[in-house]
C-alpha cells in the first residue's frame, strides 16, 4: 500500500495501437485512486475502491489477449468496475509492480466490502492524517467519503461547526460522536425505536426480540439473533457498558444493514430442493450474450459472458460463423457487430462457468459454420472443456424424465437441433440436420432449410460430434418460441393451463423477436406465469439513466443496469444462493395441474392475501441525471406488483417537495394478491 501511495507509472491500454503511459497513485484515504497523463501532468480520472468489483491477472480481456506476444501475462492486469463503467486494462513495468497493485487492490477491496458500520466508525484515528488526535473539516470529509456518505459540503460544514463545542476548528473524541449522530439522525427511526423502548433511550434484549418478532417477522433463534445484532451494530461505548442493550444509533445501523433488509436472509443461501427435473425450475438465461451494445453495430465481447456468468446466469447463447484461417467466429450474422474467436468464448466459459454457481450451464449453440469449421468447433469444445462437457445421458440410458440440477453439477450442456431419436444417438452416429438459429429471419434461415431439402449432408466427422454434443436437445425436448411477437403464433397467456401443463414436464425457451434490433427485452413475467423455464435477455452495457421515466424505454440492458425487465430477472434469481435455478411453485410442477394464470379462481389455491407495505423514509437520494446546478429533487416512491394478470398493480406515495436528503413519506400501501407464489415486488424511487 505504501508503494501504491508513492505512485507508479503504467501503460493504460485501449487497443493494440492505443497504449499510453499514466501515473497511478493511491490517495492517503486508501479509498481513492487517481491517474494522470505523463505528458500533460493533469489528473485524467479517479475512482473509488468501492467502485471496483474485482482485479484479474494476466491476459483476461480481449485487448490484453491481442497484446500477448508483446507483453507477458505477469505484467498485465484488468480492473473490473461495477455497473456501466468500462474495464481498465493496465500493463506494469515489471511483474513485481503488477503484483504490488494486484495484491494491494485486492486487500483494499476486501476491507471496503467486509467492514460493517461499526468498523467504519473505528477508522476515526485512521482519518486523523497528522496524528494530533483531532480532525479538521478536510479530514472529516475524507472519512465521510470512506463511509459512503455523500452530502452537500455546506450542510456538512454546519453540522461540523455545531459539534465543535471547543470552537477550535477541529473535532476530537465526543465532538466527533456528536457530529456523526447529527449526520445520521432520523426522527422516523427514533419514533419506531421508542415504540418498543420502555424508557425511550435504549432497547433491552427482550425489547429487541419483540421488535424482531413483530416487525421483522423473525420466528427462530430470535434471542441469539438479537445478541448478534447488538454485538455487530452497537457502536456506542454507553451501549457497550450495558451488555445486552441497544441504543438508537445502533438500531439505525441495523435497519440500514443487509440484516435489516425486507428480503428473507435465509433465502440468500441455497435453500431449495435441487433434485427435481430441470423443467421444474425457472432458469436464469441470456440472449445474444456476446453483445454488449445493440444488435446491428454493437461490440461483441467475452466480457458479456463473464458478467452474465458471475451474476448466476445458467443459459448462454453463442452464434457461430465461419472465420478466417479456419477459426470459427462468434458474432451476430449479417450485421456490422464485431467478432470474437469461438476459442476465446469457450475458454472463458470453462474458466467462469462455475465460479458463482455449481449447477449446470446450458450453451445454446447457433451453428452456421461449414463442415470444416464445425469440426473445429467440436475439437475446441472437447479440448477446452474436457470433462465439463456433457456428451451422454448421466447413466448412458434413455431417461424417463429430465435429470436434476444436482445430477448435472459442474456440467456444460450443448443445446442444438437434430434429427432422429435419442436411442439412435446412444446407439451410434446417424443423420444430422443443419442448425437453424431460433431467431433467424428471412433469406438466411430459408437457405439453411433449402440445404436440408436438397439433401445436403455434413461429413461423418461433423455428424459424430454434433450427435455426441447435442444429445441433450432430444433429451430435454425443447420448445422454442419468439416472445411477445404477435406474428409468431398464439400468445402464451392464451394457452393458459395447457401451456402450464406442458412446462411441467418439458423445457421451453422464449427469446426476443429478431426485429428487436436495439437489444430491448420483453417482460418475462407473463412467461413465468405459464411456467416457461428459460426467458432469454439481451445484456448489453449501454443503458438508460436511472432517472429515465418508466415504464421502460427500448434501450439496451446489462445485468448491472436499472430497468423493469432486468429488475424482475434480478429479483427472481436473487434467491437460492443466486445459483441461477429457482424451484417453481408446486402447482406448476404437477402435469395434471388445473392452474390457469388468467383465471386464478379456477384452482384450489389458498385464496387472496393482503400485502401491506409501509413506506417510511429515504436518505441521501441522488439527483436526477443532467439536472441543473442547484436543482433539488421532489422524490416519491412507486411500489409495483408483477405477477398473474389479476395481481398486476402499482401504487405511489405523495411526493416530498425539495428534499432529496431525508424525505419522509410515512404512507401505508395495500395490495390484494391471488397468487403470491408468482408475485414480485418492485420499488421505484
UniProtKB/TrEMBL annotation:
Protein name (Swiss-Prot/TrEMBL):
Phosphoinositide phospholipase C
Q: Which cofactor does it need?
A: Ca(2+)
- Outline the extent of the C2 domain: 589-685
**InterPro entries tied to this protein:** C2_dom, C2_domain_sf, EF-hand-dom_pair, EF_Hand_1_Ca_BS, EF_hand_dom, PH-like_dom_sf, PH_domain, PI-PLC_fam
Show the ranges annotated as biased composition (Acidic residues). Answer: 425-446
Please report the stretch or stretches of sequence annotated as the PH domain: 2-110
UniProt GO MF annotations = calcium ion binding; phosphatidylinositol phospholipase C activity; phosphatidylinositol-4,5-bisphosphate phospholipase C activity
Which stretches of sequence are listed as region Disordered?
422-455
Does this entry carry the keyword Iron? no
